[in-house]
Amino acid sequence: MTAKTYTKLAAAISNGWHSDFTPRRFLNNGHVMTLAGNFLPRHWSLPEPEELLVEVEEPVKGYEAYGPTSILCHCHWQPLDVRRERLTVVLVHGLEGSSDSQYVLGNSTRAWAAGCNVVRMNMRSCGGTDRFSPTIYHSGRSNDVARVVEEILSRQGLQAVAMIGYSMGGNLVLKYAGEYGVDAPSALKAVVGISPLMDLAVSSAALHERQNRFYEKHFLRSMIDRVRRKAELFPEMYLPYYASGKLRRLHSMRDFDEQVVARFGGFANADDYYYSVASSRCASQFSVPTLIVHSLDDPFIRMLPETRQVLIENPHVNFIETHHGGHCAFLAPSAGYDGYWAEKILLGFLLATVPNQVHGS
């Protein structure tokens, strides 16, 4: 971290929610850390969720028979007599994740135990919800986040909401906060991005580097399978493209973004997509307390120097940049807790930021 960053975190350190990150033994390599964070078995304890289906987009013109696009959220509400006053944490997963991703469930368990309401949001089509979404998901769908917030506020009369996003989900929640700026809903009290995909063009290029081809192939296979499912569910929209055989000629995520995301997401090309949806473009407009955690050894998420500088200079942002941590992992030695350092400090940040009466402590 720079001296400037340390200065900004002085109050956080004195309040006790921040601690420096030390990688778990043998995990000081970004790739090893990333894989360990993804595959190590975990345990969590949550009550059965209440399902909430939120309409986020009207039927596509010309394909009205397929109906609107909706997303599925899994909600864990505190008892009715305290629900409105408790902090509600909305969690958004990363690329090809879901509301059942390990880090989503880990954070949910922590927040629930601390007395918070928890809403686990699936992006469009994710978590087995392809049938609810004729349209595709991508890194710019911040309006979906806005719709979820609007829906839970109107249904539950909540007083305080915090957003947590990992990787691509980090870009979504940060873009949402930046687009609203000072006009954000009064109930929005804090935003957190862990390993957020704020600069898409350089991160896409990094994903195609030789050492990262393992990750890229994994994502690409999964995304191509999703287009196949779209073609089965919504043939008039997707079958002509799928049947053309062009998917077999996609060899990188940039190819996918150029040929699929741009085509079906309304962008001119991949560069237009990367530029248009990057939360780094509105980082100076973050106006609620914000925590961003990024690791310098993240295998494929890159942050431009100008983005880093804007975050450091924004008085509303607590920016933590570690030397180790991999992508969304941040596994520390187990010393009095389970060692999931990012989950621990982000909850500490939320509980220190939002008044005590809204999280039951």
TrEMBL record:
Organism: Alloacidobacterium dinghuense
Keywords, in A-Z order: Hydrolase
Name under which the protein is recorded: Alpha/beta fold hydrolase
Segments forming domain AB hydrolase-1: 88-331
InterPro entries (UniProt xref): AB_hydrolase_1, AB_hydrolase_4_sf, AB_hydrolase_fold, ABHD4
GO molecular function terms attached to this record: monoacylglycerol lipase activity; short-chain carboxylesterase activity
Entry annotation: catalytic residues: 167 (charge relay system), 298 (charge relay system), 327 (charge relay system)
A UniProt-annotated Pfam family: Abhydrolase_1
Keyword presence, Protein biosynthesis: no
Family: Belongs to the AB hydrolase superfamily. AB hydrolase 4 family.
